[in-house]
Design a protein that fits this description.
This protein folds into three domains: 16-143, 2-Layer Sandwich (Chitobiase, domain 2), CATH 3.30.379; 149-484, Glycosidases (TIM Barrel, Alpha-Beta Barrel); 507-553 and 590-691, Alpha-glucuronidase, C-terminal domain (Alpha-d-glucuronidase, C-terminal Domain, Alpha-Beta Complex), CATH 3.90.1330. Helix content is 37%, strand content 11%. The protein contains 21 helices and 16 strands. The strands form three sheets. It has an eight-stranded parallel β-barrel. The protein has a six-stranded mixed beta sheet with strand order 2-1-3-5-4-6. Helix 10 (335-340) links the parallel strand 11 and strand 12 (351-356). Helix 11 (401-408) packs antiparallel against helix 14 (473-484). The protein is globular. The structure holds beta-D-glucopyranuronic acid. The site of beta-D-glucopyranuronic acid has 10 residues, from loops.
C-alpha cells in the first residue's frame, strides 16, 4: 500500500453475505446518459465493481434488465414517476438520491439526479456506502450541497514549487502541458469529485501574471478539459499588475480605460478557450502584492473592475480579505476588519470576499474572524488551510476537521443568536449571489499525495464540510477511517480517539490559552524568543507580549479594541478576562502570571500544564497507534508509527522551548506535579540551531 488510492481503494469485500447482496444489485447496470460526466461515473462503478466484487459490470439496455439504474428523469422517465423522486427537483444540479424501489415489478437500486454531475456525486456516495459495508435493501439517501462552490486553492507556482506545500512538487506539470496529460490529473479529479469539490484555483495567490499569457491559457485549457469531466471548474489567480507585465501598459489603475480594455480582452480570450472558466482569485495589497490601493483606489474598486468584466461570462471573483497593510493600528488582528468593514455593500454581485477563519493567519487556534459577523451586505466565503503550515507540516498528525468545525459552528450573532459561520457562508445575501468556501490544498506530487498518511483525512474532511458545513468532525473521521484503513469497530474506536484529540494536542504543545505566532520563520519550529528585523510586527514577542509581570496581548477595550469588532454579547464576553473563554484568554488579554484560571491555578501553572498535556497526548496517540497494527497495511503502519515518534520528539521540543523561555521571564518554578525539562533553554536553542529550519 502506498496510499496513492486515497479513500477510493475499492478493496475486495470479504464478508460473503454483504458481497452477495452487492453482487445481486450490481449485476446489470442501466446507465442511459452518455455525456462525458455520465461516462466517467459509469467507469467509476466499473472500477469499483472489479475491486470490491471482482465482477465485471454488465450493462443493461433497459429498466427491465437492470438491477441498478443510474439516470436522470430525463433519460429514464420511469424514475420521474416514483414517489421517492417527488422532491428531487429541490436538490438542485448537484443533488442526488440513492434508494431501492420496486420498478416494473422488481426491487432495483436507483441513483437518480437532476443533472449528470449529480449522478456522479450519487455514484460516489453509493460507492462510499459499499466500501463501508452498508446494507442496500433499505438504503435511502437524499443529499445536496449546502454551498455551491467548493474550491481548492493551490498555492502552486509555475516552476513546480508549492508555497507552504510539504508533499513534494506541484501535481500540475506546466512544462508538459498542453501536450501531455498526466494520468494523475484524472485521479486528482476523481478524488475531488468523490468528496464534492467542484472548483480548483490552479496557482498561487502570490501570483505570476504569466499564467494569463496566451501560451499558459492553452495549458490551463488542457487541464480544464480533464477536470470538467468530473464537474470541476478551473480558476486562476490574477496579478493586479498583469496589464503592465503582459500588456505593456504604464498603469494598472482599475479606473483607467486602457486597463479595463486589457482585462476585458484577456477575460474574453480565457472564456474563448474555457467556456466554463470559474473566475479569478485575487490577493491584492497584501504582503507585497500589487493592488488598487497603489493607485489610490479601494479594494472594492479593484474587485469590481474584474468582477464586472467576468459577470457576462458567469465568472466569479474571489477577493481575499487577508491584508495587514493598514497603518492605522499596529495590531495585525484588527486590520482586515478595519479595511473591509467600511466597504460593506460596495462589491459587485459576483464578488465573494474570501475571509480566513481567523483574523491572523491559520494558527493552531484563533477566535473566528469578526468580518463574518460584520458585513451583511457582502457575500462572504470562508478560507481554511488544509496544508499544515503552522501545524507541523507533513510530520505531525493533526486532524483539522475539529478546527474547521469550531469555526463553522462559531456563532457570530450577525442576526442574533444562531448566526453561525456555517449559516453566514451558506446564505445568499440576495438571489443573484453565489455561495463558496475554499481550502488551501495540501496536495503534491509525492506518491501518497499529502505526505503524512493522515493528511489525506484533512483533504477529505474539507470536501465533506464544504458540501455540508454542519457535518461533525467525528462523523467525517469515521467515514474516512473506514474507507482508508478498516471499518472494524475496534480499529475505528481507537483511531477516532487519536484523530479527535490530535488538534487540541497541537494547540497544547504549540500555542495554548490563546497564544499565537510562536514559531520560527519557517513556521515549523518553536521560537517564542523571535525578534525579527526589520519587521517587528512579525516577531513572536510582539504577539505574546510576555514580560516579568505577565503574558498576553491586550486586545480589550483598554488595548487594541479587537473585542469591539465582535457582535454583542461576544464583545462583552471577550472583553472581560473573567468571562473570556480560556482558550482565547491570552489572545484578548494581558494578564499577570498570577491570574487565576477557572481551575484555580495561576496562569503560569496552567500554561505549563497545557504544554505538558500536549506532549502526553501525543504519547498516548503513539500508544494507541501501536495497538492498531493488525488492522493496517504494514507499510502504512510503520510510516505513521515513525511519524508519531518524530511528532513526540518535536512536541517535547515545543514544550521545552516555550516553558523554559517563559520561565526566563516569569521566574517561577515549573509546577511540582510536572517533571522539569531535562535541558536548559540554551540547550534547546542550540539543538534547534543544529536542526536548521525546514
Ligand atoms: C500565509 C502564508 C503565505 C501566504 C499567505 C496568504 O505564510 O505564504 O502567501 O498566508 O494567505 O499563511 O496569502
Amino acid at each position: 500500500e502506498d496510499g496513492y488510492k486515497l479513500w477510493l481503494r475499492y478493496n475486495r469485500i470479504t464478508n460473503k453475505a454483504v458481497a452477495a447482496e452487492y453482487r445481486s444489485f450490481l449485476s446489470a447496470v442501466y446507465f442511459p446518459s452518455t455525456s462525458p460526466t455520465a461516462t466517467v461515473a459509469k467507469q467509476e462503478i466499473e472500477t469499483a465493481s472489479i475491486g470490491l466484487l471482482e465482477a465485471r459490470l454488465r450493462l443493461a439496455s433497459s429498466v427491465e434488465q437492470a438491477t441498478l439504474i443510474v439516470a436522470t428523469p430525463r433519460t429514464c422517465p420511469e424514475l420521474g414517476d416514483l414517489e421517492q423522486t417527488k422532491a428531487l427537483s429541490k436538490l438542485g444540479k448537484d443533488g442526488f438520491m440513492v434508494f431501492t424501489a420496486k420498478l416494473k415489478g422488481k426491487q432495483r437500486l436507483v441513483v437518480v439526479a437532476n443533472e449528470d454531475v449529480g449522478l456522479l456525486y450519487g455514484v460516489f456516495k453509493l460507492l462510499t456506502e459499499l466500501q463501508n459495508g452498508v446494507h442496500l435493501k433499505s438504503i435511502f439517501i437524499s443529499d445536496y450541497p449546502k454551498i455551491e462552490n467548493r474550491i481548492l486553492n493551490h498555492w502552486d507556482n509555475l516552476d513546480g514549487s508549492v508555497e507552504r506545500g510539504y508533499a513534494g512538487n506541484s501535481i500540475f506539470k506546466w512544462e508538459e502541458l498542453p501536450k501531455r496529460i498526466d494520468p494523475r490529473y484524472i485521479d486528482y479529479a476523481r478524488a475531488n469529485a468523490s468528496i464534492g469539490i467542484n472548483g480548483t484555483v490552479l496557482n498561487n495567490v502570490n501570483a505570476n501574471s504569466k499564467i494569463l499569457s496566451t501560451a499558459y491559457i492553452a495549458k490551463v485549457k488542457a487541464l480544464a478539459n480533464v477536470l470538467r469531466l468530473y464537474g470541476i471548474r478551473v480558476y486562476l489567480t490574477a496579478k493586479f499588475t498583469a496589464p503592465m507585465e503582459l500588456g505593456g501598459l504604464k498603469t494598472a489603475d482599475p479606473l483607467n480605460e486602457d486597463v479595463k480594455k486589457w482585462w476585458k480582452e484577456k477575460i474574453a480570450e480565457i472564456y474563448q478557450a474555457i467556456p466554463d472558466f470559474g473566475g479569478f482569485c485575487v490577493k491584492a495589497n497584501s504582503e507585497g502584492q500589487p493592488g488598487p490601493q497603489d493607485y489610490g483606489r479601494s479594494h472594492a474598486q479593484g474587485a469590481n473592475l474584474l468582477a464586472d468584466l467576468l459577470k457576462p461570462h458567469n465568472g466569479l471573483l474571489m477577493w481575499r480579505a487577508f491584508v495587514y497593510n493598514n497603518k492605522a493600528s499596529d495590531d495585525r488582528v484588527v486590520e482586515a476588519y478595519n479595511e473591509f468593514k467600511p466597504l460593506d455593500g460596495q462589491f459587485s454581485s459576483n464578488v465573494l470576499l474570501q475571509v480566513k477563519n481567523g483574523p491572523i493567519d491559520f494558527q493552531p487556534r484563533e477566535p473566528f474572524n469578526p468580518l463574518f459577523g460584520a458585513m451583511p451586505n457582502t457575500q462572504l466565503m470562508l478560507e481554511v488551510q488544509i496544508t499544515q503550515e503552522y501545524l507541523g507540516f507533513d510530520k505531525h498528525l493533526v486532524y483539522l476537521a475539529p478546527l474547521f468545525e469550531e469555526c463553522l459552528q462559531a456563532d457570530t450573532y450577525a442576526w442574533g443568536k444562531g448566526a453561525t459561520i456555517s449559516k453566514v457562508i451558506s446564505k445568499k445575501i440576495s438571489a443573484g449571489q453565489q455561495t463558496a468556501i475554499a481550502g488551501v490544498a495540501n496536495v503534491g506530487n509525492i506518491k501518497n499525495w499529502t505526505g503524512h498518511p493522515f493528511g489525506q483525512a484533512n483533504w477529505f474532511a474539507f470536501g465533506r464540510l464544504a458540501w455540508n458545513p454542519d457535518l461533525t468532525s467525528a462523523d467525517i473521521a469515521k467515514e474516512w477511517l473506514g474507507l482508508t484503513f478498516s471499518n472494524d469497530p475496534k480499529f475505528i474506536n481507537t483511531a477516532l480517539d487519536m484523530m479527535m484529540n490530535s488538534r487540541e494536542a497541537a494547540v497544547d504543545y504549540m500555542t495554548p490559552l490563546g497564544l499565537t505566532m510562536l514559531m520560527d520563520v519557517s513556521h515549523y519550529r518553536p521560537a517564542p524568543w523571535r525578534r525579527d528585523k526589520p519587521a517587528p510586527v512579525l516577531s513572536a514577542e510582539s504577539f505574546h507580549r510576555a514580560d516579568r509581570l505577565g503574558i498576553g496581548y491586550d486586545r480589550s477595550s483598554a488595548g487594541s479594541k479587537a473585542t469591539a469588532q465582535y457582535q454583542t454579547p461576544l464583545k462583552e464576553i471577550f472583553d472581560d478576562p473573567k468571562s473570556c473563554p480560556e482558550k482565547y484568554l491570552l489572545w484578548f488579554h494581558h494578564v499577570s502570571w498570577d491570574f487565576k484560571l477557572k481551575s484555580g491555578l495561576p496562569v503560569w501553572d496552567g500554561l505549563c500544564r497545557h504544554y505538558y498535556q500536549g506532549v502526553e497526548q501525543v504519547a498516548k496517540m503513539a500508544d494507541q497507534w501501536n495497538q492498531l497494527g493488525p488492522f493496517v497495511d504494514a507499510e502504512q503502519f510503520k510510516k505513521v508509527q515513525s511519524l508519531l515518534t518524530t511528532q513526540h520528539e518535536e512536541a517535547t521540543l515545543w514544550r521545552d522551548a516555550n516553558v523554559l523561555y517563559f520561565q526566563s521571564l516569569s521566574n517561577r518554578p515549573i509546577p511540582a506535579v510536572l517533571t522539569p525539562p531535562g535541558r536548559s533553554l540554551d540547550e534547546v536553542k542550540a539543538l534547534l540551531k543544529t536542526q536548521g529550519s525546514r
